[in-house]
Amino acid sequence: MTAAGDRLRFAVPRGRILGELLPVMASAGIEPEDAFLDENERKLEFATNVPDLFLLRVRSFDVATIVAFGGAQLGVAGRDVLLEFGYPEIYAPLDLGIGHCRMVVAESEALRQKDNPLRWSHVRVATKYPELTRRHFAARGVHAECVKLSGAVEIAPSLGLCRRIVDLVSTGSTLRANGLVEVEEITTVTSRLVVNRAALKTRSAELHGWIRRFRAAVDGT
Q1: At what angle do helices 204-219 and 16-27 cross, to 10 degrees?
Q2: Degrees (nearest 5) of the Cα angle 206, 29, 37?
Q3: Domain with CATH 3.40.190.10 in the chain
Q4: How much is the mean pLDDT over the chain?
Q5: What's the whole-model pTM score?
Q6: Of all residues in the chain, what percent are helix, strand and coil, respectively (each to 5)?
Q7: Which residues are 174's β-sheet partners?
Q8: Element (H, E) at 42
Q9: Which residue among 49, 83, 117, 172 sits deepest, i.e. has the most Cβ atoms within 10 Å of its Cβ?
C-alpha cells in the first residue's frame, strides 16, 4: 500500500466540469474507484487504477488553494479561479479545452437602455470574483465597489444590493431568467491542468510524465 506521504494527489472539481473532465482523465490513463462517481459519497479522497495516484473531489474554487499550498501536487482549475487568486505557487502548463464559458459584466435590461459604460467612474458590483473585478475596472480607470457573494449573484440587482454583476456565463440563460443582459466581456474561461511548483522540482519526472499524458489526451494522440 502507498504511504499517505508518498501519494500523488490530483485535485479535481466536482459538478459540471467533472463530467467533461472524466473522458480526458480516461484518455490519460486514470480510472477512479467506483465510489468517486457516487454523488452521495461523503469522503473526499479516492483511489484510482494507478497505485500511487489519488483523487481529491472538491469545490472548484478550492482546487487552486489546495494545489498552491501543497495539499495536492496536480489539479484542474478554471482560468477564472487562477486569475482571482493569482497564486505564484501554481504552474498551469496546459489548457484542457473543457469548461468553456465567459466572464462578463451584466445589468438589468432597463438600465442597459440608458447606460453608457464609457462614462462609468464608479460601479457597485456583486460578484464571486472581487479581485479580478477590481483589476478589470481599475485598468480602465473605474473604481469598483464589490459585494462578494458565493452564489445567486444574478439576483443581487433585484434585491437592491447593486446595479451590476460580474459572473460566468455559458449560454446566458440564467442572466435572461433574472432580467439581466450582458454589457461587456472581461475574459474567456476554460479549465487548466495545474501543478504545484515546489512539487514539480522535487517530483519532476513523475509530474512531467503526467503533463505529457494529459497533453497527449487533449491532442488526441
Answers
A1: 100
A2: 115
A3: 4-99+190-219, 101-188
A4: 94
A5: 0.91
A6: 40, 30, 30
A7: none
A8: none
A9: 83
